[in-house]
Each structure stands twice: as C-alpha cells, then as structure tokens.
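Changelog-linked ticket: aspartic acid example.
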Amino acid sequence: MALIVHKYGGTSMGSTERIAQVAKRVAKWARAGHRMVVVPSAMSGETNRLLGLAKELAPARQTPEYLRELDMLASTGEQVSVGLLAIALQAEGQPAVSYAGWQVPIRTSSAYTKARIDSIDDQRVRADLDAGKVVIITGFQGVDEDDNITTLGRGGSDTSAVAVAAALKADECLIFTDVDGVYTTDPRVVPEARRMARISFEEMLEMASLGSKVLQIRSVEFAGKYKVPMRVLSSFTPWDIDIAEEAQSGTLITFEEDEPMEQAVVSGIAFNRDEAKISVLGVPDRPGIAYQILGAVADANIEVDVIIQNLSKDGKTDFSFTVNRNDYARAVDLLKDRVAPALGAAEVVGDTRICKVSIVGIGMRSHVGVAARMFRVLSEEGINIQMISTSEIKTSVVIDEKYMELAVRALHRAFDLDQPAA
Ligand code: ADP
Ligand code: ASP
Ligand code: MG
C-alpha cells in the first residue's frame, strides 16, 4: 500500500464526463489499497476565461492591489474542480473530501500571480487519509501569511501536486495529462516526435525552463529538491486499464545520473514564443554599461534571459537581451525614458516576433560540435540566428518567430530524434 498523488490537468478535467472518468480512475487506485491525494487544475479554458473577464475591467496600471484581486479571481477555477471531483467520487461510493489551498494550508510568498510555495501543513490531509478518504486539494493556489489567496503562475497545478507529494513524502506523483508522456519535442508541432520512457531530471529541468509546457519548471525543481518520484502519463486511456500497466506507462523522470539515456547526444527540442528582444543601440562602450542597463531592468522586477553585447566600433556598442513578452512594454518604456538618456545611447529598438529554439541533452557534455551542427542545420534552412546562448547541456538560438516550426522540425530530423532509440 502506497501514498500516491495524482494530478489532473485542465483537459483531463474539461467536462463533467471527463471528471466522472477521473473519479473512476482515482477510485480504482483507492480500491487497490492506495492512500490517494488528488490535485486537479481548473476545467480547460476556465483560467483563461476568468483572466479575460478581469482584462475587460482592468485599471490602466497593474498595481499590487490589482494583482491580488486577479489571484482571488483566477483561483476559483480550481475550487470548482475539487468540489466536482469530490462529488463524483462520492457518487462512485468512494469517501472523498476537497480542500482549497487556504484550508490545508499551502503557505506561499505574497508574489501575486507567481507566488512560491513555502510550506504545506500535512496534518489535516493525513487525518483524512487515515479515515479512508481520498483527499482532493486545489492546484495552482495557496495563501500567504496574511491569508491573502495567491496563485503559482500558469501551469502551477503541476507544482502544487509535486509540493504536496513532497510534503506527504508520497511514494509517487503521477501527472496525468492530455499526452501520454514527455516527447522529444511538442508532439502537436512535430507529429514524428517520440515519447521517452524516461528522461533525466536535469534534462527535464532544461526542457521545462526552455519552454516545454508539459510540466511547469517549478514542479521539476521541487521534484529534484525533494527527490519526488514523478511520472507523466495519459488521462485518456480507458479508466479501467490494469493498475500495474498504468503505473509503468508514460515517462518517468529519473534521478539516476549514470543510467544510459535513450539518446546519445540530443534528447529533446524545446521552443518558446513567450520572449521579446530589446536592443539598446549606440551605447558608449565603457565599464558598467551592462550593469546600468540590466540593473535598471532587474530593479523593475523584470527577468532577462539571453544577453549579447556586440563588438565595439568607434567607442560605441549595441546591447541586446530578451525578456518575457508580458514585461516587454514596461522594459522598453523604462529604457527609453530613463536608461538610454542617462547613458547617452542612440536608440532603443525591440522585436516581439522572435522565438527561442533549444536543443537539450546531457550527452552534449561529452560531445563536441553539437552546437555547430545545430547552426549548420539552421543555415541550410536559410534561417538567420539572432542570438545564441549555451550551457553544458543545451544550446538555444533566438530566431524569427515565423521560422519556429521549420527550425524545430529540421533539428528534430537532423539529430535523429524521429528514429527509435538504438
Ligand atoms: P495540462 O492541462 O494537463 O497541465 P498542458 O497543456 O499544460 O496540460 O501540458 C500538456 C501539453 O504540453 C501537451 O498537450 C503538449 O502539446 C505540450 N508539450 C510541449 N512540449 C511537450 C513535450 N516535449 N512532450 C509532451 N508534451 C509537450
Ligand atoms: N489553471 C491554471 C492554469 O491554467 C493552473 C494549471 O492548469 O496548472 O494555468
Ligand atoms: Mg499544465
């Protein structure tokens, strides 16, 4: 008998029919003798709908007071889901109880719309489990120390589930979703993408941080920190599939370093359309410019990703970096109004029609020339590279957004990712 956490995403919870299927699946696991905790997302489209309503009424500036209300609103989607799932389980004859984040409580920071989980109280949940109930806890939401409701950022239910699993020292956290595992790249963009039976924790961390939205990055960070065994699998198999078979399906995130991976060099390709590029042109080339530009951006709480500074010519240089598209307008305003005049820079220009494509693989550590091969593939497709960023196990390029699918497909083919593993 094990303690298992199941997470069901929006599509898996998308209708009362789907919720009834989730209830049957969870009841099956409970009947097999497992202690079950379930963390569902809002029904698909619901979080977008709620945030859309707020947008219709939003004030001109995004004040902390506004962000607080956004969380108050967005968190309701998950509350609907837990209530419905508990009802569906009761209809199956399975005792179940649901809790909102504040009832557990799941304590978070006060950073509205992107709060971080600080602690989870397991007392109430354990008492219910001891009493033979399935415990259902809202994904995505928590409560700060002043009892304000917070949310964890888009896709945050993954993180709720893994954090709950860590707090309860669960035997496994199963992330049920609308694909049957983690693929070499998004199967909706590249139909030839292959499911990986396992992926190393480090590679999953890179894939998630570089844009593979199958798991929220923080959920992978949690799994790594607390060594939570974690698996991504489909909620669209028949609910009565054999448990032993189900428990081995999908993709396991492994922590074993020396285990031979499926792919020798590149394991997967991630991409992300969420960034925008900003360039400060004609900056006098002297010590401290990077600090003056990026320091001001950081002070405005804007995260910077890829950075390049060009060679200086006639004592002037160009400085470019990428930020999240949500922060783009704010960053450009700040640079134009304050930073460029202070620096004596000629111009601030931006481009929102970019994307970042990344190849990921721990095999890159021991192979030279992988990045060069990536650049060759892109040049053969006539795709211009605007920026490059590398680490031990990944190479990312920033390119024109319109070439994203072409680039991903070409790289997927060139690195043999559509071939079955040797
Ligand atoms: P959920 O609502 O269950 O949380 P998400 O939409 O957040 O589901 O995540 C699942 C989606 O992630 C898939 O439908 C797929 O399009 C996308 N995805 C992106 N990259 C990958 C990948 N490498 N492997 C599998 N799915 C991926
Ligand atoms: N409902 C939230 C969202 O749409 C959280 C999640 O689905 O993981 O982002
Ligand atoms: Mg998700």
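Closing comment: Example verified and attached. The pocket of aspartic acid (ligand 2) is lined by residues 9-10, 41-42, 47, 77, 139-140, 154-158 (CB under 6 Å). The chain has a mean pLDDT of 94.
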